[in-house]
Hints:
Blueprint: H1 2-7, H2 11-56, H3 61-93, H4 95-98, H5 100-127, E1 131-136, E2 142-145, H6 147-153, H7 157-160, H8 173-185, E3 188-196, E4 202-214, E5 217-226, H9 228-275, E6 279-283, E7 289-292, H10 294-299, H11 305-311, H12 315-318, H13 325-336, E8 338-347, E9 353-364, E10 370-379, H14 381-404, H15 407-415, E11 420-434, H16 437-441, H17 446-466, E12 470-475, E13 478-483, H18 492-507, E14 520-533, E15 542-544, H19 546-556, E16 562-566, H20 567-573, E17 577-587, E18 591-601
Parallel strand pairs: 14-16
Antiparallel strand pairs: 1-2, 1-5, 3-4, 4-5, 6-7, 6-10, 8-9, 9-10, 11-13, 11-14, 12-13, 14-15, 16-18, 17-18
Helix pairs in contact: 2-3, 2-5, 3-5, 17-18
Amino acid sequence: MAEAQSLHRDPDSLLAEINRLHQEVDWLWQRNRDLEISLQTTAEHGDMVEAELHRANQQLQTEIAERKLAQATLQEILETVSRDKADLEIMLQATTEHGDMMEYQLYTQAVETMRQSEELFRALSESTPILMILTQRSDGAITYANTFSGQQLGVEIPQLKNRKLSEFFVHPTDAERLQGLLAAEGVVRNYELQAKRANGSAFWVCASVQPLVLGGEHTLLTTLYDISDRKQAEEALRESQRQLKEQADELERRVAQRTAELQEAEAKYRSIFENAAEGIFQSTPEGHYLNVNPTLAELYGYESPEDLIAKVTDIGEQLYVQPRRRDELVAYLRRFESVAGFESEVYRQDGSTIWISENVRTIKAPDGRVVYYEGSVRDISDRKSTEAELRQQRQVAERLLLNILPQPIAERLKRRPTTIADSFAEATVLFADIANFTGLSSHISPVELVELLNQIFSAFDTLADHHRLEKIKTIGDAYMVVGGLPKPRPDHVWAIADMALDMQQAIAQFKTPDQQPISLRIGIHTGPVVAGIIGTRKFIYDLWGDTVNIASRMESQGEPGRIQVTATVQERLKKRYDLDERGVIDVKGKGEMLTYWLMARKGWQE
C-alpha cells in the first residue's frame, strides 16, 4: 500500500526526491573516486615496496603475492562500483517510471557497495608492512593509522588519533617541505626523511602523500616505507667509496714515489752495470747474449760488450768447456728459478780457460713465460788453483798420516783430536829383530846399514799389508806387528803365524856385505791389550799390556832363525801348524813358562 502511494506522488515531490537521489549518487561517486585514488596510491607505493622488500628479504615474496592478489580483488571491486554507478544512473533515469521503490533500492545498493569498499581498504592497509596514515588536510591531525604504524612508532592506535603527524618527524622542516611539494605538484612521491619513535629512536622512511576526499572531508593519505636498511647500505657504500678514494690517492702517491725511485734505481743500476767489478749479463733461454757489461767482455777476452755479443752466438757450445754444462744450468733455473755459486770452466776468446762462478736468476713475464736470464760472473781461477794445491797437500798429508796410523784411528783423530785408548779382549803380538845386529853394524857404514834395514823392513811392510796386519813400529833393528786390531778379526793368531813364517823366507833373500846370511829371532803371544795414541807431538799408534811384554820376552829369549810362541798361541795353532815343544824356560818378570817353536804350516785346511 505504501509502495502504491509512493507511485502516485505529485510530480514536484517526485522531482525533488529524484534530485536528492542524484545528489546522493554524486556523493557516492565522489566517495568511490576518492577510494579509487587511495587504492591506486596504495598500489603504486606497493610496487615500490615490493621491489624494496624483494631486495631486502626474499622471504616476503609470499606476502607480496597475497598483496597483489588483494589489489587485483580491489580493482575488481572498483570496476564493480563503476558498473554499479552506471547502473544507478540508468535506474535514476527510470525512477519517474518506477517510483519510490526503485529509488530506495538504488540507494541501498550504493551504500552497501561503499561499505564493502571501505572494508576492503582497511583489510588491505592492515595487511601491508607500510605505515599508512590518514590526516585532516586542514590541521594535519591523524584520523586513521594502520596497525603497522602503531608498531613502528611505538604508540597504541587509539593514542595516535588526533595527534599531529609532524610530531613524529625528526626535523620539523620536513613537514613544511611536504606541504610545499603537495601544493606545487598535487601529490608527493618518495620523499625521504627521518621519523622518530615514541622512545626517541630515529629511522629513515620514504614518504608519499595523496590528497583524498572521504565523507566530504579533505584528507591526506600518507604512506611511510622504512628504508633504514637501505640508508645503512648507502652509508656503508659511501664509506667504502671514501676509503677507496683514500686508497686510490695513496696508491697514486706511492706509484709516483715508486716511479721516481725506479728512475733513480735505473740510473744507479746503469752506473753499477757499466762499472761493476764483476761481469753482468742478460741472456735468452736459447743461449744468446742480450746485454753484457764491459767487465764480462774483458773477463772473456773480448774488446767490448758489442764484440762479445756479436761473436758468442751460442753460449752453451762456445763458452763452456764441459759439454752440456749450460743445459745443467738451465735445468737448475727451471726448477729453482735462481742459482748461486754455479762453477764452470769456460773458454776465453784466445782459447785459454778460466774458472767462473755464476749467480743467475730467471726473469719471467706476467704469464709465466721466461723472458731472459740475468746474472753475474766472477773469476775464481785463483781460488780453484789454490783449492787444487790444498787438495794435493791434503792427500799427501793423509798418506803420511796413514803411514803412521791405522786408517780407522786416523779418521777418528781427524774428527776429534783427543787421546785415543781402546781395549781389545784379544790380539796377537809379534816381535822380530835381527840376530847379531851389533856385530853387523860394526862392519858396514851407517848409511849402508840404514839402507839394508829399509830394504828388510819394507819387505816386512809388504807382508803386513798382504796379511792385513797392523805394523806398530820399528825400534832399531826390532819390528813389531799386531793382528786383531784396530778392527777385530777371528783369525788374527793364524795371520800372525803366517806373517812370521813369511818373514823367515823374506829374510833369507838378504845377505851381509860379506855375503853372510841374516837371521831373525821372532816371538809371538796372544791376549788382551790396550791400543791408542798419547801425546800431542810425534805421536804413534802403540800397544800396552802384559801381552806385549810377553811377546817381547818370546823374541828376546828366543834363538836366531826360530819362532818362539807361548802355550796359549800353540793351543790356537796346533791344528793348522807344526810346532815343537821347547820346554819350560824362565821368563823375566813372569817366571817359568812352557814355550814352543813354530815350524811350518800343515798341509790341510780346517
